[in-house]
């Protein structure tokens, strides 16, 4: 499934995000809104499936990740938590770590789970990602628009 770039987000993108969540959850059953497993006492916000706003989070992560160079995930890769903050700066709204992981899994980005924690190293090339984030932040005004 393709994305509409640059945003606005439309119904097709929301459907992609719903399918991305279902696919990622099928491949990684322990995936939650917080990553892999829960985050302390907090309940999984995606329990029962993500709502519309949460699907926007997944779609935003897909927009951000779809064309970045992929590498094998390792200990010097971006962490999912740090990368979610990059997506937040790019799109202008809060992103849950599980949304980033779901988009990455669906787009075929390799992950290396942290030992005993809920995040993962994400197999996206460092320098091109930093360069592209910088370029995107200069060219694109913050915030996605919704047209559905």
Strand order of the largest sheet: 3-5-4
Derived from helix and strand composition plus strand pairing, the structural class reads mainly alpha
Spell out the helices and strands N to C.
HEEHEHHEEH
How far do the termini sit from each other?
A: 18 Å
Characterize the quaternary organization of these chains: single chain
Q: Beta fraction of the residues? A: 5-15%
Radius of gyration: 14 Å
Major sheet size, sense and barrel closure: 3 strands, antiparallel
Shape: globular
Number of E strands: 5
Uncertain runs with pLDDT below 50, 5 residues or more? 1-6
- What is the domain total for the residues? 1
Question: Would you write up a description of this structure?
Answer:
There is one protein chain. With 148 residues, the chain is mostly helical. It has one domain. 45% of the residues lie in helices and 8% in strands. The protein has five helices and five strands, in the order αββαβααββα. The chain has helices spanning 11-27, 52-65, 80-91, 97-106, 126-139, and strands at residues 31-32, 35-36, 78-79, 111-113, 120-122. β1 and β2 form a beta hairpin. α1 (11-27) crosses α2 (52-65). The model is unreliable at 1-6 (pLDDT under 50).
How would you describe this structure in keywords?
disordered N terminus, mainly alpha, 148 residues, two-stranded antiparallel ribbon
